[in-house]
Amino acid sequence: MSSPTAVGGAAAWHDVECASYAADLEVWRDLAGERGTPVLDVGAGTGRVALDLAAHGHEVVAIDADPELVRACASRARDLSLAVRAHAADARSFDLGRSFPLAIVPMQVVQLLGGARGRAAMLATVRAHLDPGGLLAIAIADPFGGVPAGEFYPPLPDVLEMDGWVLSSTPVDVRDEGDSVAVDRHRQAVSPTGDLTEEVVTLSLDSVTAPTLEDEGAAAGFNPLPAREVPATRDYVGSTVVLLEAPC
Question: Any idea what DSSP says for residue 211?
Answer without folding.
Answer: H
